[in-house]
Amino acid sequence: METKQAHTHRCSVHAWLGGTDLQARRIAVALAEALGVPVIVDNKPGAGTLVGTREVAKAAPDGSTLLYTVAAMTQMPHLYATPPYDLFKDFTPITPGSMGGTVLVARQDAPFSTVREMVDYAKRNPGKLNVASYGSLTVAAHGAIRQFIGTHGQ
After folding, report:
1. Distance between CA atoms of residues 78 and 89, nearest Å
2. What b/e readout covers 20-53, taking b as 16+ CB neighbours within 10 angstroms?
3. pLDDT at position 33, please?
């Protein structure tokens, strides 16, 4: 006879609102239906995924606490001399939650419409372009921006 676990599960998310939070909530509903127990989405933003990730790493190893996060969690251990978790010992990957990419956009009235034109414009006009990414300490986006700038000599 199959027995169901009688306690609530938690799904920690690194964000308050937006795509990652909404995806986690959809997964939590499906998990709750499949498991027959509540699955609570627990928002733990901060430090570019570090806050929620550290908490899940320290949770009881009973399978009742899950982490729904982004790829930045894999980069955090490389930014700290003594990272608060071991990516390979503290976590077991279950499944990709979604696939996405980074896009480069500019205002409609920008004086360029291709990457090559943008690079040429930046070289002719040092210090006139600004760049932004989606949130504070978003390592993946910041790394991509730095790599792009390094590749193109600015």
Report:
1. 15
2. bbeebeebbeeebeeeeeebebbbbbebbbbebb
3. 93
pLDDT in tens, 7-62: 788 888 877 777 788 888 998 999 999 989 999 898 888 777 788 888 899 998 88
Residue-wise pLDDT tens digits, 102-121: 677 888 999 999 888 988 99
Q: Could you tell me if 102 and 141 are in contact, meaning their C-beta atoms sit under 8 angstroms apart? A: yes
Q: Rounded CA gap, 106 and 131, in Å?
A: 10
Rounded Cα distance, 49 and 84, in Å: 12
Residue 22: both structure tokens together = 């909404």
In this predicted structure, what is the pLDDT of residue 1?
43
Tokens (6 digits) for 20: 């990652």
Dist CA 32 CA 39 (whole Å): 5
Burial class of residue 136 in the structure, from the number of CB atoms within 10 Å of its CB (0-12 exposed, 13-18 middle, 19+ buried): exposed
CA 141 → CA 47, 77, 110, 131, distances in Å? 14, 16, 22, 11
Instruction: Please report the beta strands in 1-130, taking only residues with DSSP state E, as ranges in sequence order.
Output: 9-13, 39-43, 65-68
